[in-house]
Each structure stands twice: as structure tokens, then as C-alpha cells.
Amino acid sequence: MTGAPLRRAAEPDDDPARRPDRRTSRRALLTAGGTAALATGLAGCEPSRRARTDEAEVTSVPGRRPEGGTTVDVVADFGARGDGRTDDSAAFAEAYRHAAGRVWDGVGRTVVDVPAGTYLVREPNALIDAAEDGGPKANGLRFRGAGKRMAQILFAPERAEDSYLCRNENRWANVVFEHLGFRSGTPGASFFYSYSTGQAQDYRFTECEWLGEWTYGLALDGSNTNSEMRWDACRVGGAWRRAFLYSGLSRKSTDRPQQDQFLNYWFNDMKVEYEWGNFLEFPYGGSITCRGGSYIITGRRPEESPHYGPTSTFFRFPREEHLDSVQRFHAEDIRFEIRDEHTVVIDCAWDSGTVHFNDCDDTSNSFKPFAPSSRPHRYRLTPRGPLVRYDCCQLSGRHDYGDGAGSGSPALVRYDMCLLANNPQEEFVAAGADRVRFVDCVGR
Where is the composition biased (Basic and acidic residues) (predicted)? Predict the structure, then answer.
């Protein structure tokens, strides 16, 4: 996708009487329009009216159409420089206020264009600043860039701790980011804090990229929703002190058993190639699907983590107290690279649910000396599961199922038509072999 055009054609429903005088800056008009919409277009909405037609009775939309541009440009309209040196925090904050001011009848109506350039942002929450008590709930907010590596936001707050580029506290649904890059200029800063008790949901990222050292990518908090999120053809690079997607931060939602509504996350055709850290961490369960792409951890943690030790893990699912709404994970058509013994594909302690790998391959480094004794897939089974299945996979090292299920437990794990690259079938399972079945597999 190319950047925003230099001149925007008039929209069909623009009121000619409201068209700006070209001698007045668009930035001033947009700011004034956003403020007026917030003050009158929302608070002064007229009651819902009925309009009768020959066909049927319909409900008209209350209030007045908000003023200001439907598509705005952070450079042309709000004065961003995009030179990588000038602090563009104010321009992005103004663009967000303009979008928030154009919410009408619960619907957002603004696309924010980010032309090619590198935009230095030093102020936390500059991209989205949706405090829980900061305005009405809304559906629809879209940021559109010029392309990965072409439009990049460099987030460099004064301090890293609890500094997020975006925050959405139970206010926005249907948030879209397209063709944008995000880089942490302050090691340990975070990208997005999302808190929900029913509103924050339906996020979509298309051809976006993350670089630099972060604590969290998306940190999810709350007791309901924070769901229906999708990543398409994105690249996750950089490094992650905690995880790119972390569900159950528990910063505002202190009732941990209620944190069980983390549902439906889709990752399609991803390039996950980062230095160290975790990709997904779901201690409170969730429904997660990853399809296609290449997943590589290129290095090692610079020092052992108090949470994770020396390991870096693509899919980490520890067990915290929650109400067991759903525990489901599916990985399909993915090529993993395991470059050393500290790289883990999955570490799962869920006490029920399902885990399924289909047509995946982690054998690219199975010829290296560390590979036969490595344990890149780790589980702690209970009598209720999770149920684990591998179909048509090529697998290196050995798999570990712990000893949590107890003697006499039924078989909870099945390998069907898999190739075991380093060990014969009878030595492939490091622990918990009595719970595992092999069907038409080929061992070393």
C-alpha cells in the first residue's frame, strides 16, 4: 500500500459550506472540528427518531454527523515531521483526539494515515490514549501506514517501566493497524496495554513489524473479552523481556479466577524471527491458532530471567488459577528453527483442553550435537489433559510429559505419521511415555 495522496478528493457527502478556507491550516480546522464534535455531537445528541417509509419503519441515527476529515494525515494535518529526530508525540496525540472526537452513535469514523518516514514518539499513550473514564465507548479506529520499514514509529519514552505506546481501557473495539513498523527506542518499553470487561476486542494487524527490545507487545488485562484478534503477514522481531502477546497481566483486574475470557487469536503467515524472549504467553488459557510461516529465535537471553531462566519459548502456557473457560492451541504448516538447547517450542502446564500440531517441522538443526538430548516440547499432564496430538510432523530431540497424570491414567498423547529425527520411538519420550501412543511413525 502506498502512502496517503498529496491531495484528498472531496468526499461525496462533504457540505460545501463547511469546506475549509485554504488559507486556514487543516490542522487548526481538524482540531477545532474534533473538539466541537466531542462537545456537541455526542453530549448534544438528539433522541432517536422514527422515520416512516413506504416499505417499513426504520430508526434514524441520532445526533449530527461530526465535522472534520474522515481520513487525516499525521504530517499534512497535524504537523508530524517523520525525520527520526523531531518528537512527533504531539502530532499523534492530536490525531487520536481528532479520531476520538468524531465518534458518532458509538462508531468511530476516522482513518489516520502515516506517510513514509520515521516518527520519534517520546510520550506514552501518544498513539492511543483511551483511559477507562476518558470518553464514550466506540467501534472502529484505523491507522494506515506506507509499508513495513517505510512508515516506522520509534517509541522512546523517558523511562521504560509501565510505558506503553497505546492504551485501550475498555473503550475501543475494532482497532486496525496496517503497513506500519514499531521500534522500541527505550529498551523495556511496551507497545499496547489493553484492559477489558466487555468492550476492548477485535484488533487486526496487517503487514506490521516490531523491532527493538520490549517488555510486552500486547499485554491483555481484564475479566471479559480482549478477544478476536488477528495478525496477518506480520513480522515479530526484536527481543521480549516477557512476551509479544501476554494474556492476564492482572494490573487492574485483581480477581484472577475471572481472567478466563481470552478467546480467538489468529496468526497467519507470520515471520516470527526475534533474538530472545517469549512469543505467546497464556497463563489463563485461551483459544489460539497459528497457521503458516517461519518461527526462529536467533540468539540467547543476555542473562537469566527470574521468570524464565535461560530459555526462550514460542508458546508458553503456564497454569494460573482461572475458571477454565477454554484451553485450546493449534499450530499448522509452521517451520520452527531450534538453534540451541535453550530454545523451546512449547511449554504447557494447562490442566485440560487440547494442543494440536499439524504438518509442522522443527528438524532444521537436528544434525547438531545438542539436538538428540534437547527437549523443545514440554508438558505437565494431569488426568484431564490436555489432550495432545501431532499429525504429519517432523520432530527433533525428545518430548517431555512430566509426571503429573499419575499411574493408570489413559493415553492423552498421540503421534500419527510423524518423523522422529533424532531418537527411536521407544526413546523419543523423556518422561510420561505410558500416556503416549504412536501410529505409523518413523524413528531414527
Answer: 8-23
* Residue 284 pLDDT greater than 80, yes or no: yes
Dist. CA 198–CA 261, nearest whole Å = 10
Q: Of 438, 442, 444, whose CA–CA distance to 388 is shortest?
A: 438
- Dmax (CA) for the chain in angstroms is 82
Place 188 in a pLDDT band, splitting at 50, 70 and 90.
Answer: very high
pLDDT band of residue 43 (cuts 50, 70, 90) is very low
Q: What sign does the CA torsion over 155, 158, 164, 170 have?
A: negative
Residue 153 CA, chain-centre distance (Å), reads 17
Angle value at C-alpha 396, between 395 and 399, nearest 5 degrees: 85
pTM: 0.85
Q: Report whether 151 contacts 120 (CB < 8 A).
A: no
pLDDT tens digits for 211-231?
Answer: 999 999 999 998 877 889 999
pLDDT digit string, tens, across residues 142-175: 999 999 899 999 999 999 999 999 999 999 999 9
**pLDDT at residue 61 in the model:** 56
AA letter at 333: D
Return the percentage of the chain with pLDDT > 70, whole number: 82
Q: What is the 3-state secondary structure (H, E, C) of 298-311?
A: CCCCCCCECCCECC
Joined together, the cell numbers standing for residue 166 give 497505546
For 117-439, CATH number?
A: 2.160.20
Q: Whole-angstrom Cα distance, residue 349 to residue 313?
A: 13
DSSP 8-state code for residue 277:
S
Listed by start position, the domains of the chain span: 117-439
Nearest to 68 by CA among 146, 2, 136, 11: 11
C-alpha to C-alpha distances, 322 to 97, 261, 314, 416, nearest whole angstrom: 37, 10, 22, 32
